[in-house]
Amino acid sequence: MKKILKYLGLPVLMVGLFWSCEDLDVPITTQLTPEVFPQNSDQFRQSAYPVFAAFRGEFSFAWWWTQSLSTDEAILPSRGGNWFDNRNYISLHLHDWTPDNGIFSSLWDWSSKVIGMSNQTISILNQAMPAGTEKNTLISEIKTMRAMSYYILMDNFGGVPLDTVYGDFNPRPQSSRTEVFNFIEKELKKALPNLNSASGITTYGRPNKQTVNALLAKLYLNAQVYTGTSRYNECIAACDEVIKSGLYNVEPRATYLQMFYPNNGPQMKEFIFAIPYDVTAQSFFGLNGQMYHSRYDVPRSERAKFGLSFTPSAPRSTLPEFYANFNDANDIRNNQWLTGPQYNKDGTPLMVTTTKSGYDQFYKGEDAGATKTYQVDLTPDIILRANVTLFDLGNDEIAWNMGYRNIKFYPDASSTNRNQNNDVPFLRYSDVLLMKAEAILRGGAETLGQNPLALVNMVRSNRTTSAAWSSVTLEDLYKERSREFAWEAWHRNDMIRFGKYEGKWGYKTDTDIKRRLFPIPTTARNLNPALTQNDGYPN
């Protein structure tokens, strides 16, 4: 199941050769060209795989960081100077970022590369592939990936250049956010009839019809934010297409956490579109392409407990404001968190031996070097006890145990490096149900005999043994989304739509609504002088 990207090698070579040779005016007989490759069905599919591999690129890095660290969901402070990284993470928390933040550059570069690679692949397939259903399907898959990347750019940066022509490197100014919205909608609707209607292994890691419907639902649910015009009934209609397909189910409570285990994959009935990860896959195209959640989330004291082959850094955690949403003792989703006193898998206390000063660097007693053994206890608060300016908690056991940790993407003990085999969902069936419930609550019409309460309880009945809700409000729904999609990089999107992104949490006090859009990165503007900076940022 995890070998879905095993054919990357040849297409990657092919793409590199096309890039390096496109301007030559002499016949090429010893290298790959459209006249030599691709020439058959397998090769046509292989030529498209680099687009899917490229989409993995920064999905678990720049995409996750920007969507989560800029919210109350997650925080990544310094500890003893570690993870200061030119204030990149600190600024996401404080909302005082600038166009020079390298994470924005990575986010822009990643999405742009997927778009550019999609344009190239479409050009190659149009030249090499005979007309027919197979060609229509494959090109529609690539156009969907391109639309998905434009969605990410539009959601984060607003208006961006629209480019669908391979080989045209002229500087392009931004199209408006509404124009980009309309382009994405049009591309998805055009692709929809040609895409595969099946789910499971045959389409895993590639978009099918319901990928498009679920992404259209996202687009329409946020239309008020993106264009100033609500489109809730269209969101509901797109959700209904997914529901009526009968292809997906809400994962039962007993197996909810297994959706995110290292052995997950196409057998997960909630996954509409997921990013496949394989620890043996290589990084390509200058993009990371890997997934390091354990590295960032597992306390270093728990390496042996989870059987990791490396010592995790564990710099990031949640904030008390976000964890407050997990207030139902009967909810299986509580088990994605490491909180309070820690225990080994056999139930014995997890103990660490250090010195008194190693435990607390501010301890100045004469016995500072004396041995101290303690049970690891993860505390909820993030306290800048070492240096407020550097956002530094300290470099001792107290500092490293600050913050509740999320292990939803369960540590992969089978990996011999920091990469993990856990696939990461981008669109899930429970999201479709909650999007439909929200769209109705915001003024859309009920359909299929489903009201918001019934839809929310469809999810909750598979998550908690507590009694079903008897009523539901938008605020209830917001909290339910926080529980359901924690660590899945949708929280910024939700906070903006619910008007909460300008709130205060942790050490953040900024309330500027202009921060709903990130600045156009300096690196992007250096490459394309036709770009103009977003409102509220220095030119």
Automatic annotation (TrEMBL):
**Do you know which SUPFAM superfamilies this protein is assigned to?**
TPR-like
Q: Where in the cell is it found?
A: Cell outer membrane
Question: What is the name of the protein in this document?
Answer: RagB/SusD family nutrient uptake outer membrane protein
The record, for Pfam families, names:
SusD_RagB (PF07980)
What lineage is on file? Bacteria, Pseudomonadati, Bacteroidota, Flavobacteriia, Flavobacteriales
Keywords attached to this Swiss-Prot or TrEMBL record, sorted alphabetically, are: Cell outer membrane, Membrane, Signal
Q: Does the keyword Signal apply?
A: yes
Lineage, top-rank taxon, reads Bacteria
Keyword Nucleus listed? The answer is: no
Species of origin? Flavobacterium gyeonganense
Family, as annotated: Belongs to the SusD family.
Q: Using the record's annotation, list all stretches that form the RagB/SusD domain.
A: 220-537
